[in-house]
């Protein structure tokens, strides 16, 4: 009997050892993406693909509708995106149990945010705002005065926020409050640096906003599609799903799309004309030299094989190739930055604003910003009428007359 018990205990122990060995055995995992097999072999990715495809279609449709409505609606879209970006970033390092002891502390963050918004957009939209009101109205004088003292207003709003912050400091919470104060200013730099150029591009012509944004979308989509079906070689450790095949395929596609899109978009005046006021409606203007066709005669050996003897190209198409190159090489680093940022703070996504795509901040890739510098007679006259007093205008007229008389005398 005792021998049988020993045998039973021995067999039980042996079975436990075997189970323990089995539990310690490394179970072979299915091949991961970017490994030795193609990404398409990972069946779990198809669900994610359909979610991203569905949300992408809705985003592109909504974006096209906003662009069709004009400059003001595009600017409003940028402002809304900014607010969502700021909200996501404000919440990133937020601690609910700390905020419970600081009533009104979150409101201080938004005070700094809207002060920065007034500073940035006040400078960008000052001239279009003045052009939108007539000199006979009281509103014109009010707007002129508001623009004239805009810097002072923003300065005192910031000082008020600074004093507000000092008065809300509480014992045992200094470190958290100063960390949030620094984080708020970092958010303002990240959000408003790129958006200020974006808004400036919109009023220089929707073309300069739409083309770079479209190239970013095209590059992002084809990097995903090519990487999905042909991706094999990892590109960067920060984004394990990014592959060299997707990067190269997206680059070629983006360059071709840039050349073709510039030709298509450059034919519409309502996309190329700059907006000088805050009115709505389509624009008509004399297209600049970048949007006037140039004709090139093809070599004779080409005309023997093809029916074309010459081709017409918009000069802006050569600029578009540079934008395409920028979008192909530099823009993906915006996504890499977001990936590294998420890993640094151990979060999956910035937010749930865009299903299947992460938060708004995660989609703000680097864009090409082109602000064309130009000064016209109308712009100078507007500055003289809005910035100078009547006496200063008379002095300017007198000095300008003397300078012109001297030049005529020397000539």
From TrEMBL:
Keywords: Lipid biosynthesis, Lipid metabolism, Membrane, Nucleotidyltransferase, Phospholipid biosynthesis, Phospholipid metabolism, Transferase, Transmembrane, Transmembrane helix. Pfam families: CTP_transf_1. Its cofactor is Mg(2+). It comes from the Eukaryota. Residues 1-38 are annotated as: Disordered. GO terms for cellular component: endoplasmic reticulum membrane. Its main location: membrane. Pathway: Lipid metabolism; Phospholipid metabolism; CDP-diacylglycerol biosynthesis; CDP-diacylglycerol from sn-glycerol 3-phosphate: step 3/3. Requires a divalent cation for activity. It is found in: Membrane. The chain crosses the membrane at residues 57-86, 107-126, 146-169, 181-200, 206-231, 243-265, 316-338. GO terms for molecular function: phosphatidate cytidylyltransferase activity. GO terms for biological process: CDP-diacylglycerol biosynthetic process. It is a multi-pass membrane protein. It catalyses: a 1,2-diacyl-sn-glycero-3-phosphate + CTP + H(+) = a CDP-1,2-diacyl-sn-glycerol + diphosphate. It is an enzyme of class 2 (transferase). Its EC number is 2.7.7.41. PROSITE patterns: CDS. Belongs to the CDS family. This is Phosphatidate cytidylyltransferase. May be involved in the synthesis of minor phospholipids and in modulation of IP3-mediated signal transduction.
């Amino acid at each position: 009997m005792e021998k049988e018990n020993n045998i039973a205990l021995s067999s039980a122990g042996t079975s436990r050892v075997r189970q323990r060995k089995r539990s310690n055995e490394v179970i072979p995992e299915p091949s991961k993406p970017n490994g030795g097999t193609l990404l398409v072999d990972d069946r779990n990715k198809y669900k994610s693909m359909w979610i991203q495809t569905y949300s992408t279609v809705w985003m592109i449709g909504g974006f096209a509708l906003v662009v069709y409505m004009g400059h003001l609606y595009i600017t409003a879209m940028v402002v809304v995106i900014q607010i969502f970006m700021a909200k996501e970033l404000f919440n990133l390092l937020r601690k609910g149990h700390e905020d419970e002891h600081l009533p009104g502390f979150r409101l201080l963050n938004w005070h700094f945010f809207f002060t920065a918004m007034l500073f940035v957009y006040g400078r960008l939209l000052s001239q279009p705002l003045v052009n939108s009101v007539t000199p006979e109205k009281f509103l014109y004088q009010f707007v002129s005065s508001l623009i004239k003292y805009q810097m002072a207003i923003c300065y005192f709003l910031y000082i008020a926020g600074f004093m507000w912050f000092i008065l809300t400091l509480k014992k045992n919470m200094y470190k958290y409050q100063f960390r949030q104060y620094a984080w708020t200013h970092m958010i303002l730099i990240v959000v408003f640096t790129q958006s200020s150029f974006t808004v400036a591009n919109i009023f220089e012509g929707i073309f300069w906003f739409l083309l770079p944004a479209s190239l970013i979308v095209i590059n992002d989509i084809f990097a995903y599609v090519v990487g999905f079906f042909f991706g094999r070689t990892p590109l960067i450790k920060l984004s394990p799903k990014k592959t060299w095949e997707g990067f190269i395929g997206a680059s070629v596609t983006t360059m071709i799309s840039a050349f073709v899109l510039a030709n298509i978009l450059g034919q519409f005046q309502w996309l190329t004309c700059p907006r000088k006021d805050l009115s709505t409606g389509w624009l008509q203007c004399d297209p600049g030299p970048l949007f006037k066709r140039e004709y090139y005669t093809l070599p004779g050996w080409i005309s023997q094989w093809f029916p074309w003897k010459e081709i017409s190209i918009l000069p802006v198409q050569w600029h578009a190739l540079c934008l395409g190159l920028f979008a192909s090489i530099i823009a993906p680093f915006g996504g890499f930055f977001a990936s590294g940022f998420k890993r640094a703070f151990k979060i999956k996504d910035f937010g749930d604003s865009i299903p299947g795509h992460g938060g708004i901040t995660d989609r703000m890739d680097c864009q090409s910003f082109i602000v064309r510098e130009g000064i016209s007679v109308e712009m100078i006259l507007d500055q003289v009428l809005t910035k100078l007093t009547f006496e200063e205008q008379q002095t300017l007229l007198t000095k300008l007359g003397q300078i012109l008389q001297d030049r005529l005398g020397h000539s």
